[in-house]
UniProtKB/TrEMBL annotation:
<dbReference type="GO" id="GO:0032259">
    <property type="term" value="P:methylation"/>
</dbReference>
<dbReference type="Pfam" id="PF04445">
    <property type="entry name" value="SAM_MT"/>
</dbReference>
<keyword id="KW-0489">Methyltransferase</keyword>
<comment type="function">
    <text>Specifically methylates the guanosine in position 1516 of 16S rRNA.</text>
</comment>
<protein>
    <recommendedName>
        <fullName>Ribosomal RNA small subunit methyltransferase J</fullName>
        <ecNumber>2.1.1.242</ecNumber>
    </recommendedName>
</protein>
<dbReference type="InterPro" id="IPR007536">
    <property type="entry name" value="16SrRNA_methylTrfase_J"/>
</dbReference>
<keyword id="KW-0698">rRNA processing</keyword>
<keyword id="KW-0808">Transferase</keyword>
<keyword id="KW-0963">Cytoplasm</keyword>
<feature type="binding site">
    <location>
        <begin position="102"/>
        <end position="103"/>
    </location>
    <ligand>
        <name>S-adenosyl-L-methionine</name>
    </ligand>
</feature>
<feature type="binding site">
    <location>
        <position position="171"/>
    </location>
    <ligand>
        <name>S-adenosyl-L-methionine</name>
    </ligand>
</feature>
<keyword id="KW-0949">S-adenosyl-L-methionine</keyword>
<comment type="similarity">
    <text>Belongs to the methyltransferase superfamily. RsmJ family.</text>
</comment>
<feature type="binding site">
    <location>
        <begin position="118"/>
        <end position="119"/>
    </location>
    <ligand>
        <name>S-adenosyl-L-methionine</name>
    </ligand>
</feature>
<dbReference type="InterPro" id="IPR029063">
    <property type="entry name" value="SAM-dependent_MTases_sf"/>
</dbReference>
<dbReference type="GO" id="GO:0008168">
    <property type="term" value="F:methyltransferase activity"/>
</dbReference>
Length: 250
């Protein structure tokens, strides 16, 4: 799905130009369906016919992200344990399916240096804007920029070109088991804009080859193993599980 930017007088001209240049996004005054726009403070994703949907944006500094960063459990969280941050700080991680960057933020707040890979231009633009705002926010400016880096690329390509990290983290889009009306509104938007990762199985061998220490795959509890590969161990989360494939000791 091609997403355009809807311009406005309030949209910072330099930012608009940068988004076009970096992510190949077009500008369309009368966009229909999903589109990107400026809400006065941030880049957001909206739908012309779904006013109750609400804006979708990347926010690393406040709201749910801030609460989870401060009170979510830190290195005791399931994702941190799966990656190995409860045993060793400062790990390098490639998040090859970054999405809105929430898992990457948890890992970065636990001390990891995370490279976020995102192939969808609209989602990558939202991530870039979230990182831009976090770089000047008093709660994140002194640590987040050096721990989170965005790479706009197809995951399969990135996994053959990036420097080998300690850990490769995969969270491919998985079809929701629940009826669409029961899925969170934001996930409905994400599924419509991004679609399902039908080529996700092909990521596993690339991730295994690139990672120095381990590969971690986030899956719904009911989902089969990625690429049919049985993990070395599993870490159970509240709503998901983390399949851990150990290649070498941390």
């Amino acid at each position: 799905m091609s997403i355009a930017i809807s311009p406005s007088a309030e949209f910072p001209a330099a930012l608009l130009q940068q988004l076009q240049q970096d992510f190949g996004l077009s500008v369309q005054a009368d966009a229909l369906g999903w589109y990107l726009c400026w809400n006065g403070e941030a880049l957001v994703l909206r739908h012309t016919e779904l006013p109750k949907q609400g804006d979708v944006l990347v926010d690393f500094c406040s709201g749910t992200a801030a609460w989870r960063r401060k009170h979510g459990g830190g290195k005791s969280e399931a994702i941190a344990k799966a990656v190995g941050l409860n045993k060793k700080s400062g790990l390098t991680v490639v998040d090859a399916t970054a999405g809105l960057g929430r898992d990457a933020l948890v890992l970065a707040s636990c001390g990891a240096k995370v490279t976020l890979v995102e192939r969808n231009p609209a989602v990558a633009a939202l991530l870039a804007d979230g990182l831009r705002r976090a770089a000047v926010h008093p709660d994140t400016a002194d640590w987040l920029p050096e721990r989170m880096q965005l790479v706009f690329a197809i995951s399969h390509q990135a996994l053959t070109e990036l420097a080998a990290p300690d850990v490769v983290y995969l969270d491919p889009m998985f079809p929701a088991r629940e009826k669409s009306a029961l899925v969170k509104k934001e996930m409905q938007a994400f599924h419509q804009v991004v679609g399902s990762d039908e080529d996700a199985d092909a990521l596993w061998p690339l991730a295994w080859q690139l990672a120095q220490k381990r590969v971690v795959v986030k899956r719904p509890g009911y989902a089969e193993f990625l690429a049919g590969q049985k993990p070395t161990m599993q870490v159970e989360g509240k709503n998901n599980r983390f399949d851990v494939y150990v290649k070498a000791a941390l």
